[in-house]
Amino acid sequence: MSTALVVLDLVGIAAFALSGALVAVRKPLDVFGVLVLAGATGLGGGFLRDLLIGATPPAALQDWRYLLVPFIAGLVAFRFHPVLGRLEREISVFDAAGMGLFSVTGAVKALDYGLEPPAAALIGMVTAIGGGVIRDLLAGRVPVVLREELYAFPALVGASSVVAEVELDLGEFWVLVPGAVIAFGYRMIALRRGWHAPLPPGMDGY
Amino acid sequence: MSTALVVLDLVGIAAFALSGALVAVRKPLDVFGVLVLAGATGLGGGFLRDLLIGATPPAALQDWRYLLVPFIAGLVAFRFHPVLGRLEREISVFDAAGMGLFSVTGAVKALDYGLEPPAAALIGMVTAIGGGVIRDLLAGRVPVVLREELYAFPALVGASSVVAEVELDLGEFWVLVPGAVIAFGYRMIALRRGWHAPLPPGMDGY
Amino acid sequence: MSTALVVLDLVGIAAFALSGALVAVRKPLDVFGVLVLAGATGLGGGFLRDLLIGATPPAALQDWRYLLVPFIAGLVAFRFHPVLGRLEREISVFDAAGMGLFSVTGAVKALDYGLEPPAAALIGMVTAIGGGVIRDLLAGRVPVVLREELYAFPALVGASSVVAEVELDLGEFWVLVPGAVIAFGYRMIALRRGWHAPLPPGMDGY
């Protein structure tokens, strides 16, 4: 992976690790529980991606920075969570940032490993939603991706735009940045404005 | 994989995807939640199978039909769920059909990848129960495989019969069809007649 | 893997399978539910380990003893659970034993596959906590690793000591035994004495 891609991957890991650690702080779990949930949330999406595309052992097990980042993010959240403020809002912002970044790195890495464009877009989405699903299953919460706000779709849109940009052979900046911005921005606007996707016909009275 | 095996795999994916989509419709989730649960349920068992036997990237990521089938099944369930009628019964029929088909395709593919007969039968069972377990974990339901009705055992019987038929070197029809019919039929009869497996001694008064 | 390592792996599988089967007996699940939860708990950690280090198909699918052990452990727990006595305490002892053994076998196998020491220690911890997490997710319980008692940290300490001992090039006994004893003993003492790790600052009044 290029340096830019590794940096985005590490920032995504930090964002997801913070979201997982804040969920753990809120229960509250002890310091080891916070670190385990930070690690599982930060690294879970990338583990899923690497297992599915056959890139084993996963990147996170071959590069100590991938282990250090969620460890530090977990400790920061543990110690400074009151400064981080109203937890629910912070969790959702960090979660959206991790989602946007992972939709990009997931799709690009899948293309690198020879997957076709539709499969690469799907892997981008799975990378983006995987860490949050693991966090929510471990914490006994309904996975955010299945709740009513738009989540999986922004991830898929971001990942698909990355795949399209790679096909168009644009420079690295134009491949890496717009997809993450699209996925993060779409998600945040949907969250703030309370956008909802359609419910099944006849079920919208619930 | 032979054409017949791919067809059975796709029909199993469609059946499980419908079961996942109907669980999602019933909560109710929005259209993207329905598609995510349809995809995770339809493709989850095969992903587990392919990861465990080392067939990465999984078949579903190398063949666009594997992605199209759960997408269409999810949209059909989203739009036409009132026509599909009483959801609980439909979910269990589609679920049993997917289970029967995956017990066959899982066992045959595991044998193709060189696993010994007992391991291949186990992989058949894991393929058959995996999608439903993922569906139920994501939806916050107790996995159907752990509830009281017979589920894992019919899957194991179906997968074991496939392994035996391959050992006997029968033709393709006799390898593929009886196992699926046995697993599906056993499950449906158990469900309709309320058959139960024994509870632990001293615990059956619950 | 050496014979000693396979023996420790099988004993760890038996211990975890008993813990899973006793959780199932306690719900109560039927005989097949008990066997499924015994198998998932006993083999889940090793499956995770082998998938993450790229050792597919997993050891449990290439050696019939790995399938026989959880099967027998499940049947024993199903039939003799009243003799096994007060279930909660037994579950936690078997669970701690499986955790200690898997922290060793996970770390050693990861080193064998070429992972760096910090990643190998992490794989040891994941192997040690994976089966219990799968058991608790399937059974609808909050994973024990996230509850307040010390769990992940003893596993990491045990796995780290193994990695250090391998680096020091000690004999097999000194590599395999101390790590398991440290992880198991630390966990049991923490459990019996009610040791707790620190809660997040400001959250300890909960």
UniProtKB/TrEMBL annotation, chains A, B, C:
Subcellular location, record wording: Cell membrane
Pfam families linked: Gly_transporter
Membrane protein topology class: Multi-pass membrane protein
Keywords: Cell membrane, Membrane, Transmembrane, Transmembrane helix
TM region(s), chain numbering: 6-25, 32-52, 64-81
Domain of life: Bacteria
Domain called Glycine transporter: residue spans: 7-81, 93-163
Xref: InterPro entries: Gly_transporter (IPR005115)
Chief location of this protein within or outside the cell: membrane
Family designation: Belongs to the UPF0126 family.
Full protein name: Trimeric intracellular cation channel family protein
